[in-house]
């Protein structure tokens, strides 16, 4: 919040797999939940009070592992809120599903700010259209099976 500009940020939200809920941090006195560490590969929703151009650097670690968990203990619905490294080669939701393994993935979802809703791509017949991936965005990857995934990269 301080790096982006404290007064420009309303809150930072972390997705909690255990409850399929959100932990909202405002940085204000008496805030609940308390401050939490940011973890590489995890994503956070940042709600803004003002427009800010903020440059985010990418990871150059070609061995970064994303642990994508299916529904079960520790992950209520199998949803994983992840950020792909900037050098990942998957450029669409369908390419990401193929890279992880189509049978392992139930859907890839992205948050659409214009509608405050999720766009869901399942890759199955009748699914809404495929969408492009942006290394500056986060995605819900809902899993059928748990996998440790190293994103294909250039």
Averaged pLDDT: 87
Strand arrangement across the biggest beta sheet = 5-8-6-7
Q: What's the alpha carbon Rg, rounded to whole Å?
A: 16 Å
Overall 3D form: globular
Number of helices: 1
Report on the structure:
The chain is mainly beta and 154 residues long. It has one helix and nine strands; from the N terminus they run βββββαββββ. The chain folds into two domains: 43 residues, no CATH class; 84 residues, no CATH class. Helices cover 5% and strands 30% of the residues. It has a four-stranded antiparallel sheet, with helices on one face. The two termini are 31 Å apart.
Question: Could you list some keywords that capture this structure?
Answer:
154 residues; mainly beta; 4-stranded antiparallel beta sheet; 3-stranded antiparallel beta sheet; 9 strands; 5% helix; 30% strand
Describe, in short, the structure shown.
The protein is mostly beta strands.
Write the layout of secondary structure elements.
Blueprint: E1 9-16, E2 21-25, E3 44-48, E4 66-68, E5 79-82, H1 93-100, E6 105-112, E7 117-121, E8 139-143, E9 147-149
């Amino acid at each position: 919040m301080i790096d982006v500009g404290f007064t420009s940020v309303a809150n930072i939200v972390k997705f909690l797999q255990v409850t399929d809920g959100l932990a909202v941090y405002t940085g204000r006195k008496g805030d609940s939940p308390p401050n939490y560490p940011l973890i590489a590969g995890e994503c956070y929703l940042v709600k803004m009070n003002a427009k800010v151009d903020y440059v985010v650097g990418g990871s150059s670690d070609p061995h970064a592992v994303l642990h994508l968990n299916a529904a079960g203990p520790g992950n209520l619905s199998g949803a994983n809120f992840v950020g792909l490294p900037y050098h990942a080669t998957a450029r669409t939701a369908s390419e990401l599903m193929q890279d992880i393994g189509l049978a392992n993935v139930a859907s890839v979802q992205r948050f659409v700010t214009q509608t405050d809703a999720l766009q869901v791509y399942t890759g199955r017949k009748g699914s809404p259209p495929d969408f492009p991936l942006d290394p500056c965005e986060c995605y819900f990857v809902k899993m059928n099976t748990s996998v440790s995934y190293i994103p294909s990269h250039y």
